[in-house]
Design a protein that fits this description.
Layout (H helix, E strand, L loop, with lengths): L1 H7 L3 E3 L15 E3 L4 H15 L5 E6 L2 H16 L6 E5 L7 H10 L3 E5 L2 H13 L6 E3 L6 H7 L7 E2 L10 H14 L5 H6 L2
Parallel strand pairs: 1-2, 3-4, 3-5, 5-6, 6-7
Helix pairs in contact: 2-3, 5-6
Length: about 200
């Protein structure tokens, strides 16, 4: 799409990717308004290291582009804050059992876990983690901030903190009016992507 926008000199508005490399292409026809992984990584790192003062944090990430690019932004931000995440463990997109990864994280003795992946697998990870007796606080990227996590994990999702590109509990008139129109048209709550795409 970027190559087509460049060749056709066609303006393209990106309202949905969190990949920071998209805007690094320096293609003047691309406009981007969605908070990318740099902003999300900073928000998580600030909360975990500066506010909660955790010291021995592990990262569990999906082994795909979203997991590779996103976790790296969090990792780099943590290092700039003088914090070195204890370990990075990966999982495949089709995995449903995470016992090997969780045993590794538990053995290392982490005091917090960052999950950079999708909602469904995060729900499974939380459920399996709590079943193993792991009580560490868990944090997640914006793809974790969806009801599907709670649907899959149930009570194991209690306490999960995820960064999100919007606050769905806002009470300002513009947001409430947009939310009402969106619900009427699509019979669903607007998520971050719908909110940033709205003109």
């Amino acid at each position: 799409a970027l190559r087509a926008a460049l060749k056709l000199e066609l303006p393209m508005i990106d309202t949905g990717t969190t990949d920071p490399t998209v805007t690094e292409t320096r293609i003047q026809w691309l406009l981007h308004n969605f908070p990318d992984d740099r902003q999300q990584g900073y928000a998580l790192a600030d909360y975990i290291f500066n506010q909660l003062k955790l010291k021995h944090v592990g990262i569990l990430r999906e082994n795909a582009r979203y997991g590779r690019k996103g976790f790296q932004e969090f990792f780099d931000m943590a290092r700039r804050m003088g914090q070195q995440p204890a370990v990075v463990v990966k999982y495949g997109l089709s995995e449903r059992s995470f016992s090997e990864q969780l045993h590794t994280l538990n053995r290392i003795g982490i005091d917090g876990l960052v999950i950079w992946g999708n909602a469904y697998q995060t729900g499974l990870i939380l459920k399996q983690m709590r079943a193993m007796g792991m009580k560490q606080p868990v944090f997640g990227s914006s793809r974790v901030a969806y009801p599907e996590v709670v649907k899959v994990a149930g009570a194991a999702a209690e306490g999960l903190v995820a960064v999100c590109a919007m606050d769905p509990a806002r009470q300002d008139p513009e947001w409430l009016a947009f939310r009402k129109r969106f619900q009427k048209r699509f019979n669903a709550e607007p998520g971050p992507y719908a909110s940033y795409a709205y003109d």
